[in-house]
Amino acid sequence: MKRRTDLNVISGERAGLFGAAILWIMLFHSTLRLTWPPLHLIKATGYAGVDVFLFLSGIGLYYSMEKDPSPTRFYRKRARRVLLPYGVVAVLYEGGRCLLGRITPAECLSNITLVSYWTRGVPTYWFIAAIVALYAAYPLLYKLIQRKQYPLQALILALSFAAAWLLYQDQPAFYRVNGFVFRIPIFLLGCYIAPAVKRGAALPQIPTLIACVIIAAACWYLWIGCDPWFFRMYLFIPLSISLTLFGSILLSKISKNNPIQHILHFFGGMTLELYLVHEKLLSALTHLFPNHTIAANALAFLLAVALAKLLRNLCEKALPPRRKAPQ
């Protein structure tokens, strides 16, 4: 009998996958020069780590609402997890820039409230703007998933693919929000596949691993010469899904006591905080050490880890999760 696995392995290895995704994103943001073509390609496509995150988020939100379907409590938990650390970093960073005279008070407020992203395309916090919009829509998506409204789900997914092309006709708007619009389909796919993941739909293990490798390799190959350039973003959808499934199966074979698991879980526990602080630190340090790329990147990485851990701990202590009232 052929060895089999099931889609529930994605949920079981979610923390490790988050850790791998944020390390990939941090490599993408780094200024390291990787000249060996395979490594250069992996670094150049690290942007797809965001797609992995959104795919896993779509699955995770389903589990969350299955446990507690209250939209009010759903929004409260998302606000505590996203807006609290974001608010701390944005107020300190934008406030500091304002005090140094680099931006005006009006620009400071516009950046913190994310208005500058939607109106002028300021990309500093584009990911926060994106997940706030997607999380806000999720309770409605959950209802469609629960009611098995497959035709409507398919229509929404098709429209999300068409949105980028329609938006491309208005170039200023396209360049403001293309990063967000191209990520809507992968988030929706995560949402729609979540019931099958929770159910543990069976898969033949070896053929699945082989298919994942072939799909990922094909996406990387096509990415090199894809034209027009923005079609590359759609290659991230099969790439991120195949890497997620491949990675989850591999991680399921590694003992939970293995150092690899501990490292990935450590980083997977503070992905948002690392995203918020790493790129800003890297930008500052590469200006201070312009001729020491490796040193600047190493220092930025270490400081980002320390500050992200501190930020996560402070936010958890400042606003701990509410305990459910006894029945």
Description:
By secondary structure, the protein is mainly α. Helices cover 78% and strands 2% of the residues. The chain is built from 16 helices and two strands. It has a two-stranded antiparallel sheet. Helix 5 runs antiparallel to helix 8, helix 8 packs across helix 11 and helix 12 packs antiparallel against helix 13. It is globular and about 60 Å long.
**What is the percent of helical residues?**
over 70%
Share of β-strand residues? under 5%
Major sheet: size, sense and barrel closure? 2 strands, antiparallel
The beta-strand count equals 2
- Distance from N terminus to C terminus (CA atoms, Å) equals 47 Å
Number of helices: 16
Uncertain spans: none
Please state the CA-atom Rg, rounded to the nearest Å. Answer: 20 Å
Spatial strand order of the main sheet: 1-2
Order of helices and strands: EHHHHHHHHHHHEHHHHH
Mean pLDDT: 91
Shape: globular
